[in-house]
Amino acid sequence: MNGATKVGAYVLGLAAVFGGALGIGKVVGPIGDTAAETSHTATGTSHGASGDSHGTDHATAGPAAPGGAGDVPGGLQVSAAGYTLVPRTDVVEPGEAADFRFSVIGPDGRPVTRFTPQHEKKLHFIVVRRDLSGFQHLHPEEKGDGVWSVPLTLPEAGEYRAFADFAPEGARGMTLGMDLSAPGDYRPERLAAPVRTATVDGYTVSLAGDLAPGRTSRLTLSVSKGGKPVTDLEPYLGAYGHLVALRDGDLAYLHVHPDGEPGDGRTAAGPGITFFAEVPSAGAYRLFLDFKHGGTVRTAEFTATAGGATVPEGGPGATDDPAPEKGSEKSPEEGPAGEDSSKSPSPEDSHNPDDHTH
Ligand SMILES: [Cu+2]
């Protein structure tokens, strides 16, 4: 893509952000990554007890947007409720390992040093290219004085979005987002069509349930390997699965959590992992499921739509040539594994499906 086109796409991206924010109106906010996060156990229980109460619980659980804007999905803002995400690195050369550093600046203008852990981590860091490819879920280390550091490789050129999902001590959980650039020639991938089955590393994950805008929907993701259901999933960060949903068009960030937890006496270790998800609008979403088995965390990816939306055929992601489907998407006829066998296992604490951090 030449420079002019790239700028054009960037402006289009901005328009999508504003359009998304304006268009959301009164519909409810995201799940899980917000105020509810700090009381996740209680929220998890209510998920099981009543799906309907869930929407109400979260109607005011947006990422604490200042000025009463409310109901803005997570990840769309670099600053909210007095907290600002500040990169200390803003350009990352594609294909080169970088020590990426950033801070969260608090309402007092100083870097935040105290966080309430959520899912066993003080801060969850998600990186994805603007075309929804190259998902990474990382856990940066504290380097002191409120500086976070994470080994980061952006495999290919493009515009990326990084999300920090955290709860400052004494404050609501929130997700802030910032742009990252990996300079170079960039050809966006088209968003893959919705499918019910994804494969990763020889595992097949099937998706049951449908997203519905503004309502809680029950999604069950079932994991099998070699045709056999996996019934010994391993707890990863306090759950059998972690699901991140990103909205196509503006990358609104929705962190969804499973119904039930390991050891609660009612939650099986697979093959099914049930989530209660609520998306704020009709549209296409990319779902990223992290699950752990055999000591390795893997990510299965799906496109799902809500409210009768279809995946756009034009737009910034379109190319004249049919784009190859994204890695983990396969229709059932194509069989499991396939090119996903190229996805390497990655260490537990930085489960990047492409193992780019090492
Ligand atoms: Cu995490």
Secondary-structure topology with pairs:
Layout: H1 3-24, H2 40-49, H3 51-59, E1 79-80, E2 83-87, E3 98-105, E4 123-129, E5 136-138, E6 141-142, E7 148-152, E8 158-166, E9 174-182, E10 197-200, E11 203-208, E12 216-225, E13 228-229, E14 242-247, E15 253-256, E16 272-278, E17 283-293, E18 296-306
Helix pairs in contact: 2-3
The protein binds copper (II) ion (CU).
The site of copper (II) ion has 4 residues, from loops.
Q: How would you characterize the overall build of this protein?
A:
The chain is built from three helices and 18 strands. The chain folds into two domains: 3-182, Sandwich (Immunoglobulin-like), CATH 2.60.40.1930; 197-350, Sandwich (Immunoglobulin-like), CATH 2.60.40.1930. Strands 1-2-3-7-6 form a five-stranded antiparallel β-sheet, with no helix packed on it. Strands 10, 11, 12, 13 and 16 form a five-stranded antiparallel β-sheet that branches. The two termini are 28 Å apart. The chain has helices at 3-24, 40-49, 51-59, and strands at 79-80, 83-87, 98-105, 123-129, 136-138, 141-142, 148-152, 158-166, 174-182, 197-200, 203-208, 216-225, 228-229, 242-247, 253-256, 272-278, 283-293, 296-306. Residues 1-69 and 315-358 have low confidence and may be disordered. With 358 residues, it is mainly β. A hairpin with a 2-residue loop joins strand 17 and strand 18. It is globular and about 50 Å long. Copper (II) ion (CU) is lined by residues 121, 124, 137, 139. Copper (II) ion (CU) binds at residues 121, 124, 137, 139. Residues 38-48 have a biased composition (Polar residues). Residues 323-333, 340-358 have a biased composition (Basic and acidic residues). This is Secreted protein. Residues 38-73, 304-358 are annotated as: Disordered.
